[in-house]
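Regression test attached.
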Amino acid sequence: MIRIDQVSKSFGKLEVLKDISCTFEQQGRIVAILGPNGSGKTTLIKSILGMVLPDVGEISVVGQPIRGRWAYREAISYLPQIARFPDNLRVIELLRMVQDLRQQPAHPEQLIKRFGLTSHLHKRLSTLSGGTRQKVNLVLAFMYDTPLLILDEPTAGLDPVAIIQLKEMLGQAREKGKLVLLTTHIMPLVEELADEVVFLLDGRIKFRNSIEVLKHTFNAANVEQAIARLLLNSGNAHRSLDRVSSVVS
Amino acid sequence: MKKLWIALCSLISACSPSPKPIHYGEAMCHWCKMTIVDQQHAAEAVTRKGKVYQFDAIECLVQYLDELGNDDQFAWLLVNDFNRPGKLIDAQTATYLVSAQIPSPMGAFLSAFATRAEAEAMQQQKGGQLYDWVGARQYVRQR
Amino acid sequence: MIKILKYTLFDLLRSRSLLFYLAFYLAFTFGLFGLSADIQKVLISMMNVMLILVPLISTMLGVMYYYNSREFTELLLAQPIRRRDIFLGQFMGLSGSMAMALVVGVGLPFVWFGVGTSPFFVQFLILLGSGVVLTFIFCALAFFIALRNEDRIRGFGLAILVWLVFAIVYDGVFLLALALWSDYPLEKFALATSLLNPIDLSRILIMLQLDIAALMGFTGAVFKKFLGTALGSAVAVGVLVLWVLGPLAAIHAVAARKDF
Amino acid sequence: MKYLVVWMVWLWIGLWPCSMKGASWWVYGKCEWTDIQSAIERAAPCDTVWVNGGVWRVDHPIVIDKPLVVLGKNRPIIDGGGGKGDLLLITADDVELSGFTFRHMGINYVEDVAAVRAESVRNVYIHHNVLENTFFAIYLAHVRGGEVAYNRIVGGAVEENNSGNAIHAWYCSELRIHHNEVQGHRDGIYFEFVDESRIYNNHSHDNLRYGLHFMFSDDDVYYQNTFAHNGAGVAVMFSRRIHMWQNRFMHNWGGASFGLLLKEIYDAQIQGNTFSKNTIGIFVEGSNRIQYRHNLFRANGWAIKMNGGCMDNVITENEFVYNTFDLAIQVANESNSYDRNYWSEYSGYDLDRDGVGDVPYRPVKLFAWVVQQTPEAMILLRSLFIDLLNFSEKVSPVLTPAAVMDHQPLMHPLLQ
């Protein structure tokens, strides 16, 4: 479904992605992309979306190289990290607008109800709180039935109830056979939901495998601990991890 | 498109000095500031750098040249041919007639002719004195 | 593109800054008419104001709009829409709404005071037309600057600089050049130089339509003669169009290669 | 033409030398005297010749060679038929010519042909005629004493650049030119070597070059004339002691236009005139000892533009209102005085309330100065850069001539 082939990207002198190769197949999986700040998570996601253009390498989505194309994004729903919308639009107008732009069947009604947004529909976006705005953001991302779902920090600013709802929605997505890529800092969420972890460090994939293998490899009780150890060992663990990830992919 | 290109090029490129037509009734004499209307007595000087000065009378051109005292800076010195209103001819090769019967705009009674024969013909008709360019300038100076 | 344009317009037409922009023109133009009923005088005053304000506000609002809608633009970029369409749409939406504010803000008072039946109708149209074109040109420049500069402070700085260059510095250098080369015939140089600056070109296009053109003497006559020909007016319009298309092409090129 | 011409006796009473007594002669068609010339020949000096109506084609000029009163009744028309000669020639003293229409002359590039020419005579009186499409209309050469009044002179050659002057006077003196309407000629009224003459109440408009033009003429007065829409209003050149009072110079608007051109003139008085909407109100070059007083300069491009060589001029108690430039000067340190004028752009204050501003006014804008040096810079008119330039110069003058200053600018308009 997504094929990343020897992709490198630098911003000025800063190398953000260093020769990354990996593939993600669609099989009802939730893949957590983890890594410390500045490790290249968001850049990787944006590269898949075509927002960042790799210096080297190629990315294919649904079997087609994406460079210079845009129509493939019909297969992707995206939740950006920071949600800011035109200040003068109302919620309902924003929803209609995105639908109008995408021209794909959308089902926002249930999501609106689920997040309790009904009463906010006619408010201007600039007047909404950060949490509510994130809910609107979630509606925009989940209202399409696309095979691929990319979420950048979906829990930011959400209240616990909304987080539970998000988890439900992610579970449903997996059941429907979608591929979900998400980044997050909340490890329990990863532990609870993710089938697989991709760990990025300094622009390279340091680790990629299932949660179980992750915990087992680092002899950890939970993901948080495993990641912490992964980070601590990253210096001398390079080789083995590379091997591991290459074996897995 | 090609025309447009040529026009733009000619706009931007520095021009080699060339005479410019006098817009009678609009242009102002560089010397006496009068509007140039007389198509038989107007004159023009073009500097080597391409700057054009126009005069309503030959005597104005002469006075201007005398004040500058440096003819070398001019690529063209031109005067109207009395017999062909509106036509400019080389001032240095023209023949000049000073005749009380032919007033010129600034009162010098000075007219220019393309050929000596034409000037003589007019002299027969109107009387007066013939000069070449140097003589005509001398005449204006002493007036 | 049309849809992006539509929504950008939809958003901007309700924005406070644009409403303020509109209100300013309305108030100012009505105010001028309050001071003088002479349409030509008001036209000249409006010309002065517009040639300064339109480029300034257009670059400022253009840069501001781009930076403010940065995140939303990212959301759009993740949608199945052509990149070019997003930026073109936003540009058209912004410059379109600003142009509308200008046309309504300046046009309404003029129409109210009877420009339609006055002998200055053509001049009025040229004034509005060049205002609109300047809006487009400087919005495009602003978008280009903002696209090239992630840093807002730098972006704003450059935008002001660009405005300064076109509105003031250019004329200063121009004047200096005229003074330095006063031994040479300068009409064509002057003509070419002022054709190249859209603000100067607009000013001259309007001035030539007004009585005041007579003050411009021989050089003015050269302009009038040139711009009076089909070729001349084609060149003038062509230059203005190029001033819109050039930055647009640059926007397109930058946007195609840019990372978000 | 079947016009019956009526005989009648006419007694002329007045100061005219011929008016004591004289027979009257009639000219009519298809009878003994079918042309005006033979009637003139038959008439004795001091007779009156009446011409009643009709269109009189003229191939050779009618010559009036004795003191006569030649009067047109029912507006007879003297038609030149596009020919290249004069229509009527006055070669005798004490001739009065009135009531005719002269029309249709061709252009002559070699000779200054005229509809009515008076040469080397005294006391010619030409009045109440209409002259249409003539080359020169009325041409006076070596005329001493004479009056040209109430004529209507309309040149048709507005597009043509080769056209004569409407009223042309050369080596004349003691003329009175008044109440004429002249238009469509090269110059409306032209004076060359004409002294001690008066020009008043004329309306000179839409002429190609000047409404009124003095060359080498001294001690003349012109007043209460209106000069509008001419190529330029009035040119006074190489003349002395010309007085210009209460004339109106309007709408002389164009690339090389001005209301009044002064070139090499001395000791003139310019008083109570109105200069309105001229590209340049007064253009002065090489003129000394001129008094400008009580003139109104309104909405001109330049109110006064002075080139070099202007000394000892006094500009006082004038009103400068809404001019793009009040004053432009080429040479700064000439001894001219600009005190006690009203300037609409003056923004000073008057603390002691004596009607005179406490801060001097500098009438020369920096841009005016720049344009004087580099005329091409004019296309920067009304650009922001220029506004800033002017403003900064106003705040702290560096380049504009310090000597050019109104030390006592008036706070209130004087004249309106």
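Expected vs. actual: identical. The interface with chain D takes residues 44, 47-48, 51-52, 167-172, 174-175, 178-179, 182, 186-187, 190, 194, 199-200, 203-204, 207, 211-212, 214-221, 223 of chain C (CB under 8 Å).
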